[in-house]
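Researcher: First entry.
Model:
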Amino acid sequence: MSTATNEPKQPNRPNPLTGVVVATALPYRQDAAAPAGLAVDYDAYADHCRWLVDNGCDGVGPNGSLGEYSSLTDEERRTVARTAIEAVRGRGKVIVGVHGPGSHQAVRWAEYAAEDGADGVLCLPPTMYRANPGEVVAHFEAVAAVGLPVMVYNNPVDTKVDLTPELLGEIAQIENVLAVKEFSGDVRRVLEIKEKAPSLDVISGADDVALESMLMGATGWFAGFPNVFPAESARLFRLATTGRLAEARALYEPLVAAFRWDSRTEFVQAIKLGMEMVGRYGGPCRPPRGPLIPEHRELVTAEMRQAIDFLATETTETTEAAEATVAVADSTRQAV
């Protein structure tokens, strides 16, 4: 294992992995011949990707955990990535999930992503094996050698591998590794990562600490609930990253109860239910995910309703304020 230093070794270039990138949920349609009787609805997925970008998000992230990548066939998984790339080409970035049990699988998905025109890749450590630090570094070296910008993904809850700030200091020395999606839930790590791995952009990975992470210097949000609230999430990011803290808090606090579901086991089902509640299609999940139990469904519904009602009130107040401003301007012109 090489010795890490605090000196950045990345080229000076814009990082395409920052901003609000939505970890996209995946719609299915009933089809008895498909796995678990559910076929991927690629047309609906393309429409969803376009809708997210049209509503202010910077890009989309197909084939993440929220996109149920591990429940897809190889053919479906590549087609999902291609569908996203084609849907937002020229208008938004696409960061493709290339997670795999070993580097040979992750490299194959990264090569496909490069061939298909992705802007970058998101990559977990080995997904079915508690790799040691040397194996983790070797895994990311292999993926980064494909040539696309790489966002490494720290999700110690699911992988049992923790990309600590010290380990990220070593990973940051790998060419093409430009960012880390931080999902430990510990916002103290944002500054520590910036100290130990100053060349890496820190991307908030958990929606319920998104604002806290941004205020500490996160330059992106690889997010779940923008599947439900894309325009509002994009606005939250802009407010937080331009120093408008009071406005950011006023928007964030009524939403965070719903956002907490992004860090729970049932996050995919919860976000799909939220999509249904705002008039989008969420639909079912493939196994191993089943439907929400009644208790969870009731709780998600209540917390989503709180967020939706707040946003409806906020929209009404904003519209009324804008109309009042126009009325004053009109009366001023008439007086003149």
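Researcher: Second entry.
Model:
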Amino acid sequence: MSSLRSVPQVSANATFSDYAVATATRLLGSAGVDVEQGTRVLRRMLSPWGARQIGTRPGWHSDVCADGSPIEFSAAFSQEGLQLRVLVEALPERLSTSSAQEAALGLTRGLTRDFGADGNRLAKVSDLFLPDEDPAGFAMMHAATLASAGGPAFKVYLNPNAHQGMTAVERTREALDRLGFGKAWTAVGEYAGRGFDLDRIVYFGLDLADGPESRVKVYFRHYDVSPTELDARMEISQQHEKGFLGEFCRQLTGSDSDIRPQPLVSNLTFTTAGGHLPVSATLYVPLWLHTASDRTVRDRISAVMADMGLPVSGYRSLLNQVARRPLSAGRGIHTYASARVQRGRPRLTTYWSPELYDRYPPARYQRG
């Protein structure tokens, strides 16, 4: 596969801020979202590490994208409107998880101070996910949601495998209990009915907000499972409409096989208002290893969106603002697509890598 790897499509001398702000400006303008506010949010999320040069390979191989890029843009389409999102992993000063924790906590403080993000719930579980001694893996990722109405909303993704002193299962259960969702563990255990080795907890998501609708999310990576089986299990969410996700996955990947080069991902979402049962369940389909080019992925997503009654032209317009090469010349732009249907209302999100280091990213998250 080495012959397929590309040189960076952004100058190695450019900074992360150079790339991200220029891309966000195009996306925000195309979507009709406040460009000034959106770029101000992004500049804060990139401070201070955004001033570094991108280089030719990642110094800190971020968990955000398969090629190690620490920035990912995405767009959520629904009948209610469009949301733009950006996900970043604050790059550490030193190549260690401890340093990554310092960078992540600095970003959290900045979002709290400058944009009113609420870190109270994060503070209740921070010692679980940001241990002082021997932390491992990534520290924390931050996401911002931007829409044409209202201010920005923020979320963090935490690492259930942050320390060997607790398993991901133990850590997640303790975090749910501290946040007042102890009874939700019954739903989590039922959902992972094949066992936590095959239905592996991989992220713990938390809105940086405090209220009855503020979300807690548990993310799973599923090995050797059919989307039809996952679809049936997602009925644990009372709002889930069964029967859509199997065909959704088949259309996007071109395959009915349960054995995949990248495992499927899903989440269960809990809120105080929803009680101990998940208010939603979402499937995430990895895309970059199922076809030779992003052009094919674009066509597949367009067909799915048309079937769902969602705006194909809006998706294609935003994709044109992200892509910096012909879509036929690689397969690394589209990382995932996610979907759910609740009360007859479909929602699809597509996620885009900047391909700062590779337009043919390798497989990851294999069993082990």
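Model: Note on the second entry: Strands lie at 71-78, 81-88, 140-147, 153-158, 199-207, 215-222, 264-271, 280-286, 334-342, 345-352.
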